[in-house]
Amino acid sequence: MSASVPPRVVVLAGGVGGAKFTLGARAALAALDAPEATVVVNTGDDLWLSGVRLQPDIDSVLYALGGQNDTVRGWGRAGDTERVNAELQAWGAGWPWFTLGDLDLGTHLARTGWLRDGATVTEVVDRLSRRWPLGVRLLPMTDTEVDTHVLLRDGARMHFQEWWTRHRASLEPAAFENPGIEQSVPAPGVVEAIADADVVLLAPSNPVVSIGPILSVPGVRQALATTPARVVGVSPIIGGRVVRGMADVCLTAIGVETSAAAVAAHYGARSSGGVLDAWLVAEEDADAAASVDALGIRAVVAPLWMTDVPASAALATTALRA
Fold first, then answer.
1. Residue 302 backbone dihedrals phi, psi, to 5 degrees
2. DSSP character for 269?
3. Phi, psi of 230 (to 5 degrees)
4. How far is CA 115 from CA 10, 124, 126, 227, in A?
5. pTM of the shown model
6. What does residue 319 show for φ and ψ, rounded to 5 degrees?
7. How far is CA 150 from CA 166, 170, 227, in A?
8. 100, 107 in Cβ contact below 8 A?
9. CB 12 within 8 A of CB 200
10. Within the chain, how many helices (H) and strands (E) appear?
């Protein structure tokens, strides 16, 4: 990336960590007078509930960029109410442990109506993106429904959201699956954005159920392998611990240690068939840098805590310079 030419950037993201990082990337690119980033968002944790289509990761990024997110709870709309959710529960409908806010439900109803009218997921995301000035181009990873299912050790199977939200990842998983993903294709614009990028950034999202499904869409890994861009990832592990959620349980299920170096190895070096050129490691994990370098991935030690937008912007700037 030339210091005098603003970079074209693609971010692969999912979840709250992805939303925070995307806010920082937007701020960092605005300071460089760079073009709007393209943010490719995980749709693997989408689901149908009470007749409406929910896209939790899309909405987390949408609400954060639009300044509408509930920063206290970490999900949903700020100032939301739950009258409709209470009425659904009174009817015995939906999931009593999965809250749908009234404003949030408005988003889901609009989405569902457009989908039932024949719009693609990409077209729906584009319509949702017009309401607030997002400052990025938002794309789903695919237009195909590829919800994430959790296969448990006892042979039971459930939707990822039930395992994650209801059981708080307390049931031991044996595997994570995205039925139909082998037949999916990248959403329009995803491959082209990666091919035209100067930098591709992997947000510090859950490597298994947020970034993993994006990389599993046929064509995405090939696009990353052939792009002239540098591919830079940000570790979701700080001080040997996950920053948010239960990503450590997900990593253990697929045989990956909860460490910055192990997650880097999971992604792999692009020079060896993986996806990374560089990997940002937290200052607390500086001793992992040598192990990351030995993988053929350039390790960059930096502050990774995204405590506010300026901190996230500083992190994104470091990733761009990596």
1. -155, 160
2. B
3. -85, 140
4. 26, 7, 12, 32
5. 0.96
6. -65, -40
7. 13, 12, 32
8. no
9. yes
10. 13, 14
Using H for helix, E for strand and C for coil, what is the string for 159-170? EHHHHHHHCCCC
Strand arrangement, sheet containing 149-152 = 157-159, 149-152, 173-177
Q: pLDDT per residue over 86-133, tens digit each?
A: 999 999 998 999 989 999 999 999 999 999 999 999 999 999 999 999
Q: Residues near 167 by Cβ (< 8 Å), separated by ≥ 6?
A: none
pLDDT single digits (tens) 225-279: 999 999 999 999 999 999 877 899 999 999 999 999 999 999 999 999 999 999 9
Number of Cβ atoms within 10 Å of the Cβ of 74: 14
Count Cα neighbours of 118 within 13 Å in the Cβ-side half-sphere.
0
How far apart, in whole angstroms, are the C-alpha atoms of residue 33 and residue 24? Answer: 14
Q: In angstroms, rounded to a whole number, what is the distance separating the alpha carbons of residues 276 and 134?
A: 27
User: Torsion over CA of 290, 294, 296 and 298, rounded to 10 degrees?
Assistant: 10
Distance CA 3, CA 216 (A): 33
For residues 56 and 60, give the distance between their C-alpha atoms in angstroms, rounded to a whole number: 6
CATH of the domain spanning 9-46+134-147+179-321: 3.40.50.10680
What residues does each domain of the chain span?
Answer: 9-46+134-147+179-321
Could you give the 3-state DSSP secondary structure of residue 176?
strand
Shortest CA distance to 9 belongs to which of 44, 52, 39, 46?
Answer: 39
SS3 state of residue 17: helix
Token code pair at residue 295: 């993988």
Note whether 43 and 143 are within 8 A (CB): no
Q: Structure tokens of 25?
A: 């990337």
